[in-house]
């Protein structure tokens, strides 16, 4: 028996798809809706999460810390986007930022080192699919920890618009031996 819970947050953020052949190459913004879907095989038997998979409040807090804090009203850019050079004040910081983004999977450029305020760099082009995977990887361990290893993060769904979403999930075989990534998407525009 598997229980499923979901928590949703919304952020406003700018991005662009530099490799896109059409309008998505332009710097533009979205009202992103992000859903974190968690599962558990049983419920907590005691404590403040008794009869829960994971407290919705805990899940929201982790999503706010990882997603909202760094990206709401910010700009999310690919680390090799040529625009980065324009926004970062000192060239030496760009090299460091790229290095950190590659190493850690993300890098938030300090406010005083760029011209746009919140600037979040990731080693992939910030499509909805890539953001779903990125946020999944940043939230996965936090979900396990906040639920005392009872719940696991099953999926992240990222809506770029009310009509376009992408989902990332990690599939685990019944034996627990083979793990694979299964991206899903439904996209019309960016
Ligand atoms: Zn877009």
Q: Quick summary of this structure?
A:
This protein has 190 residues and is α+β, with helices and mostly antiparallel strands. The protein has helices spanning 56-71, 83-87, 91-104, 128-146, and strands at 3-15, 28-40, 74-78, 107-109, 119-122, 151-161, 164-172, 179-186.
List keywords for this structure.
single chain, 190 residues, alpha+beta, Tetrahydropterin Synthase, Chain A, 8-stranded mixed β-sheet, 4 helices, 8 strands, 35% strand, binds zinc ion
Description:
The chain has a domain at 3-73 and 128-187: 2-Layer Sandwich (Tetrahydropterin Synthase, Chain A). The protein has four helices and eight strands; from the N terminus they run E-E-H-E-H-H-E-E-H-E-E-E. The chain has helices at residues 56-71, 83-87, 91-104, 128-146; strands spanning 3-15, 28-40, 74-78, 107-109, 119-122, 151-161, 164-172, 179-186. The chain starts with a strand and ends with a strand. The model has no long low-confidence stretch (mean pLDDT 91).
């Amino acid at each position: 028996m598997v229980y499923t819970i979901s928590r949703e947050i919304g952020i406003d953020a700018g991005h662009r798809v530099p490799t896109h052949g059409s309008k998505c190459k332009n710097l533009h913004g979205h009202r992103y809706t992000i859903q974190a879907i968690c599962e558990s095989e049983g419920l907590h038997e005691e404590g403040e999460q008794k009869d829960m998979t994971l407290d919705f409040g805990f899940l929201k807090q982790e999503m706010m810390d990882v997603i909202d804090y760094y990206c709401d009203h910010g700009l999310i850019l690919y680390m090799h986007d040529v625009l980065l050079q324009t926004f970062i004040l000192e060239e030496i910081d760009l090299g460091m930022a790229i290095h950190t983004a590659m190493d850690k999977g993300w890098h938030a450029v300090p406010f005083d080192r760029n011209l746009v305020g919140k600037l979040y760099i990731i080693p992939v082009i910030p499509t909805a699919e890539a953001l779903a995977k990125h946020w999944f990887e940043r939230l996965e361990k936090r979900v396990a920890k906040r639920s005392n290893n009872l719940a696991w993060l099953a999926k992240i769904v990222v809506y770029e618009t009310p009509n376009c979403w992408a989902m990332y999930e990690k599939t685990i075989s019944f034996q627990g031996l083979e793990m694979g990534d299964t991206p899903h998407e439904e996209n019309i525009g960016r």
